[in-house]
Structure formats: structure tokens, C-alpha cells
Design goal:
- With about 130 residues, the chain is α+β, with helices and mostly antiparallel strands.
- The protein is built from five helices and five strands; from the N terminus they run βαββααβαβα.
- It has a single domain, classed as Alpha-Beta Plaits.
- A hairpin with a 6-residue loop joins strand 2 and strand 3.
- Helix 1 packs antiparallel against helix 3.
């Protein structure tokens, strides 16, 4: 199995501008509903509030494979969400846990957002049932 065929986890941490949480939550809910309907390769998609700061949130996303991330990045509702983030957000950082193909690494680099690739797993496994999901 190539690296690009394996599931991986993406965490995107965002900070919302002061006084703009309601607008941001609306944009997040809209993109979440659209992603659920249009991206079968998105296996898990949550937007969680930080328990210590009401302006900080984390997207937790589990992708079936690299193709699922490419579909996400090219999905029009995601572009609309990023426009809302530019208006209502003040910080956006991504961590990806798992192996990615070179083409996917280049696509994430092209986004121009800060990101870290955690590709050296010390201990762990991927269930076979996720490979064929």
C-alpha cells in the first residue's frame, strides 16, 4: 500500500476574532453540513471548542486517503469557509498525523498556511477495515 492510500488525521486549530464567534460558528456549521454530503472520503469531521478559551476551536478530520484531502481542498464550500475565516478568524494552523504522498505534501504547502507533518509514528497501527472504507 502506497503512503497516499492510507488514512490520516488532520487537526486544524483556529482562533476567532474577538466578537466574531457567532459568525464563525455559522460558517463552520455550513461547511460541516456540505462536507458530510459531498465528501465520502471524510471519515470524521468535528469542530470542537477549546475548554479554556472561547475563541479557540479545533477541526479534527480523519481522511480515508490523500485523494480525500484533495477532494476536500477542491470542494467549493471549503473555499467559502476559508473566505469566512479570512473575515472572522485570526489564526489557522494545521497538524497532519500520518503518511502522505509527495503530491499531497505539495498541495498542502501551496495553501500558504502554517502546518506541521507528523510522519514518524513511534508506535501504532491502522485497522484493515479503514483501508477499504
Amino acid at each position: 500500500m502506497r503512503d497516499s492510500d492510507k488514512p490520516f488525521v488532520l487537526l486544524a486549530r483556529v482562533t476567532v476574532k474577538e466578537g466574531k464567534v457567532d459568525e464563525y460558528l455559522k460558517a463552520a456549521a455550513e461547511v460541516d453540513a456540505a462536507v458530510e454530503q459531498s465528501e465520502p472520503g471524510m471519515l470524521f469531521h468535528n469542530f470542537d471548542a477549546d475548554p479554556t478559551d472561547p475563541r479557540v476551536f479545533t477541526w479534527t478530520e480523519v481522511y480515508q486517503n490523500d485523494a480525500a484531502l484533495h477532494a476536500h481542498l477542491n470542494n467549493p464550500p471549503v473555499g467559502k469557509y476559508l473566505e469566512a475565516h479570512a473575515k472572522f478568524g485570526e489564526n489557522f494552523e494545521v497538524d497532519i498525523y500520518g503518511l502522505l504522498g509527495e503530491e499531497t505534501i505539495q498541495a498542502v504547502n501551496a495553501l500558504g498556511i502554517p502546518w506541521r507533518h507528523h510522519k514518524t509514528t513511534q508506535v501504532g497501527y491502522i485497522r484493515d477495515s479503514l483501508h477499504s472504507a
